[in-house]
Amino acid sequence: MKLEQPVKIIIWGALASGKGTQSELIEKNYGLGHIAAGDLLRAEVAAETEIGKRAKEYMEKGMLVPDEVVVTIVNAHLSQPDAEENGWVLDGYPRSLS
Length: 98
Description:
Layout: E1 8-11, H1 19-30, E2 33-36, H2 37-46, H3 50-60, H4 67-78, H5 81-86, E3 88-91
Parallel strand pairs: 1-3, 2-3
Helix pairs in contact: 2-3, 2-4
Protein name: adenylate kinase
Keywords: Kinase, Nucleotide-binding, Transferase
GO molecular function, one term: AMP kinase activity
């Protein structure tokens, strides 16, 4: 079922709590884009972008990527025309309390 207007949903929870599963179901049933913060980070690292290189330094050490880096990546994706027009499910973001 396609929604009449863009909807924005944030799914937040503990590791392995079902965020991805629920996000995929919402994406499938309502036509929203599924935006997973972890997937965006890995894509930036794989593309070897400047921000991806910064993220990689933390990821290789098993540390959380700083909020400023994650916010930059997520904001860039949310400002894309398809996200604006179709709405989205944001999975795994925010990644910290701050």
